[in-house]
Amino acid sequence: MIGTTPNSDLGRAGIAYREIKRRITELLYKPGDKLSEVRIASELGFGRSPVRTAFSRLQSEGWIEISPQSGTFVRGLSDDEITEILETRMVLESHLAGLAAKRITEAELLQLRAAFSAFGKRVSSDRLDAYLELDLQFHLAVYKAAGNQLIAGILINLIDKIRWIRRASAGSPTRIQDAFNEIHAVLEALEKHDSRAASAAMRVHIVNALEFRRNKKISDKKATMSR
């Protein structure tokens, strides 16, 4: 039936959905954490209905699991899902980087140079949030400069999961610095309007992220077995 949910609840459900997903993607709620409908409703100043609606939407997107017996838990992304997302990015973003090198304007390059210049050359653990924001804005700028709205749309639909992966993979200061150097290499190729170099540099960036995840999984498994 249409119109059975009050408009105020629809608005509140949207707010609850965005806030809960923000907490998940920023790892404030970690995989395995149990979520309390009552507590979240109280924190947001809402009734339970908008939070319940938000939970249903988050469940459909794979962010949480709801069990009538045990409750609601943060699901996160499986290793297979992370691999599939990174492999998709490797194909699509390397292609977009090549297109962007041909099509990027001087004004767009000026904005990217300014962002990198303001950030500096070194990444430290206390600047993780600033780096992740720079990384996100850089990739979005590449999508825009490439001028292919269809491919950009596919990647933008994955953006929340990409943000979750970035934050979940950001435990190594060395990897963070390497990732920063990698996107700077993409910028240098864009400045030269070198399509092949831009595509290759973006591919290296995402392949390295994939390899880091794989190596971390092996390392974590060995550490668990040695206990």
UniProtKB/TrEMBL annotation:
The HTH gntR-type domain, residue ranges: 10-77
Return the protein name.
Answer: GntR family transcriptional regulator
Q: Which UniProt keywords apply?
A: DNA-binding, Transcription, Transcription regulation
Q: Does the keyword Manganese apply?
A: no
Cite the CDD domains for this sequence. Answer: WHTH_GntR (cd07377)
Report the InterPro entries cross-referenced here. GntR_C, TF_FadR/GntR_C, Tscrpt_reg_HTH_GntR, WH-like_DNA-bd_sf, WH_DNA-bd_sf
The record's annotation in Pfam families points to: FCD (PF07729), GntR (PF00392)
Source organism lineage? Bacteria, Pseudomonadati, Pseudomonadota, Alphaproteobacteria, Hyphomicrobiales
Write down the species: Candidatus Afipia apatlaquensis
Highest taxon in the source lineage: Bacteria
Q: Which SMART domains match?
A: FCD (SM00895), HTH_GNTR (SM00345)
Q: Which GO terms describe its molecular function?
A: DNA binding; DNA-binding transcription factor activity
